[in-house]
Amino acid sequence: MTKRPLSPIPNSVHKRQANGSSESSEYIAATTATWYTIGQCALTFELDHLALRAFEASLRHTPDHVDSLRCLSKVLRTTHQQQSVDVLASSFQKFPHLNNEPSLWKELAEAHISLKQYDQGHQAISRALQLRMNDPECLLIAGRCLEHLNPQHAQHTYQSILSMITQPTTHLELEIVRECHYKLGLLAAASSDWKTATYELQTAISIALQINAETELMWCTLASIRERAGDIESALQVCRDALQVVGLQRRISVMAGYLAITPNKASQTDPEYAISILSPIVMTEKNDELDCLAWYLLGKAHSLNNNPRQAYDAFQCALKKGKTSPLPWLAVGTLYLKMGQLPDSLAAYSQAASLMVDDGSMTSAIASAAAWDGLACVYERCDDQAIDAADAYARAASCYRAADDLRAATQAEQRSHSLHAAARGEAPVPALRPVPETSPILLRDTVLNVIQAEQLKPLVPQEPQPQGKQFHHLPLPKGSLATAPASRSPTEKGTPQWRPHAPLHVSPSQMSQQPPIPQQQLSTSQHHTPQQAQAQPHHPQQHPPQQPPQHTQHPHPQQQHQQQPPPAQYPLPMPQHMQPMVQQQQPMHYYAPPANVVWR
Q: Which segments carry the TPR repeats (predicted)?
């Protein structure tokens, strides 16, 4: 019996398998393209969480899809996450052919830049330039990296791009040219070349194709350059022109309000214009740093306009919206100090000092110095507080030196030595200093930082970061700013230091133990310590009860445990000259915006 030969597989079977394989690949390709299109639509409507899920679904079907990888990293980059780098790095390892895709290397470079990893970003964009020589987009990203590595090379890179695109025709080329002029303006401003910076910024604004956040930032930067050059009138005119072009936008309005309350060459301000331009902005109730800054500037404008009640209301709103910002607390401390309410002023300045963060910036150092300077002025106006005031001036001097303000540091050190000599009876008590105002440099830097941070704000909430170290240079001591008990100087004997009211001895420990005094318990003729105000009226014949010692001497003052100031009380105590309120409180009156400004 012979074996029957095996019959070959019919051709129809091979055709069905080939058709099934092709249909499966077509399904995968179509599904991948569909999810990618859904992600693009979500990005158009700024629905980043939906776009993230769509691009991830696209990569589940085709893990090496170039466009989906690039867009997924872009969405993660907007939240400043390390995953934007990890996604591309792992894809390069799994799929070696992706190493020849310049678009992925460009996206990897931008991801490194968003994480402030400029060396890695420059390496990634150099790889992209090897794959695509003299590409303007790649050169632009390289310039962004070189701004932090070598500014001179960055300037040369931007100029090379402009020489390549002499007559831009497409939308992309116009955007590249605009950004090159903007970056050249910033580099010129960093070297104090105000003329070149102004020209480059004006050119960048003239090329802007649409009104967006970047356009607002360019207008604000141009106004800041004019202001730093010393031409306040021209800077304010830039903001007026910007309001005519882009409408009543928040950041430009805040910049205009800040410039309006900044003294010009003739030491003149325009608080009424600041009130008229900031009043519509604060009514939007955004509850962010920019809104807090707008309320603060509005309070400063009312204060310059001699309206303490409106200033008080505006500062209170700023405190509620920016509880972590020291700027409103410094303003409230100054306001209470002008009113003669020393315990309330001390509480406000202490709160400002407790909010300082040692991030190494000049802004933090200046803010910390302002807080200690205000505390020193409060202690100077109290009895038996010469040593405490001298210690506060010494701390302010160390902060001024950290901010490279040697002149202010020297003045604070001299004031500290004079007060120490007066406490020992070796010299007369120096005359009281005027009430300190907010540093112009601190206010300018804060305005610019908030305006720029508004554009760089992440779109997805981040995990809470650990709180940084507090910027005090020396720890807040327990109960007093001095490490030794205060002693009354012979030259201070019989001289009332609490102005403009009657003499009153208040120790630092008494001030720091209680919250600000409720104004309903104060009168215009008698004033008490925080404990006495809550217990019983003060009688001139009676002496205040002796307080037990609040702390023991420590051999190393720097190792003492820090004591936080009293918590903020909302609403804040009303200034004394406004009490009692006989009539019902009237709402704040705002000036109407100019007729030629259109809200958009």
A: 102-135
